[in-house]
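FIELD: query
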Amino acid sequence: KQWYQRRVPLRPGEFEVDHDGEYYRETVDEEGNLIKEEYRIDDQELKVYVDEWTGDEDYYESDIDDIDVEVYVDIDDQDLDLTDYIDFDIGLWGEHDDRASDDIFIAGKYESKKREKGVDEEIQQDPVFDTTDFPPLEQLIVSPLCSEGLNFTDIPEYAVVKQSRKFSQICNVPESVEVLSYEWVKIDKTTGETEFVTNERELNIESVKCSRGHAAIYQCRVTYLCEDETSDLIPVTAESNEMTVLVDRGFVSNPICQIFGDPHVITFDQKIYSFQGECTYLLAMDASEGSWFIYGRFIKCGSDGTCLDSIVVYVGGYPLELLRGWVINQNGKKLPIKEGEKLYPDDTLSLYYDGYEVFVELHNPQIQITWDGLMNVKIEIASRQSTLGLCGNNNDDPKDDFMTWYGNVLGDKDEFGHRQAIDRSGICKKPPKRTSFNEDTTAATAHCEQVLMSGLFRYTSEYLEQQAARRGSAHELYRSDKLMEMCVYDYMSQMGIDALTPECYAGYNYVSIIKRLGICIPEGWQSPTSCLSKRELQDITISQGCPWEDGQLPFIRD
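FIELD: result
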């Protein structure tokens, strides 16, 4: 076996390989006939020396800023591409060829084994380089087969970007592919339509804003040349995986109490329990001065449960009632709302409707109530003021949330919940205890996991948990799996409303939570979960409340 060292100037872009440390062995029979030859290179250095030649035999360029190397090994007339299997270490040195002021030294480790050759097969020797006709590097680039598709790399399925920060993503494809064009688009999952973003390889958003629609689903589309079945080069367009970009608008640390489903309660101090009472109950109140009260009416729902039906807020002696169908009653007057508009009925409150929920902001005291128009309410207060009611006492200690007006802490949730009843007639009964269902919950668990443990929710909950750990805070609703038990409970109680299933209602509830915690997600999250669209949910919600007059619907319709 002989190796030949090329000692002629290289053309621009060409490289030569110095094979050092190889092992070669021949095996012969008794008559001296060659029966096997072996080539083996185990964990040896593959050295590639690159001289940038300007065309003048006595002059070489040494300023090389960037170099891309592809390695092919010729074995039995077959070019084997080893580029993806070699870990390159690139550095400058200048001792290989004294005609060049600097060379590029590239070292990698690889292992190559030769198969055994038959007795009658011709032994192939390495060819001597023809100094007059050295093939250009471009001949080593082989166009991919169209049937193999295009491999996109380093495009994440999900990404979170801080509000007002810059976001960029490169559309990476193999460098050996001849790309004709790039295109980034946004995909509207609710309509299936796409919106052109840029025809650059790199997607750049200088200042990410949720209000500008930057929280969206993006996709890169590449048109490139490939070989068809007849070995002709044809242009083909390939699509990358979809990339969902979420916008983090900032963490919300105010105390939040939530009541939803067959009523499940998450207190201000993050204690979770369920209470199936059927009455009007005190949800929260100012325990220090009695300046505000919030009540909720629980009615019979599903096959064997109850749910929240309406909310009444008393501030300064005046009531504000939130009913199903997004109806807001102020002293007998139905307040108008419109999707995307913030309204100020008077100087005490403001209203905002985003198409999913109504946000009622009380100015004094500072309280925000979020009502989904069905059976989900979130109560957020601005400070650690002392409270009483189903939402607990708001002292940052969940262990004493079952505190009564007299300061006693109860151990039984049903007894505690029953004592919050507004029952002057004495007709409300303490609900029976229930710890589990006798029926098989396998189907319920599978349906809830399909929604709550989907990729988007799992990714978002992990991100929120990491952010909470950084701040040293805790919140039971950072993780979507925390809602699994409650979702299964509602599924078994048949808590769906028309076509709105319990698992999808739990999904909408979690979306509401992460939005309130500062994460802006794109429309269309329902698509992979088969849950109702925004429009379908609006139609169901409106049907549950008092009729709206024609032309006064709160949401926007084409």
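FIELD: remark
The mean pLDDT is 78.
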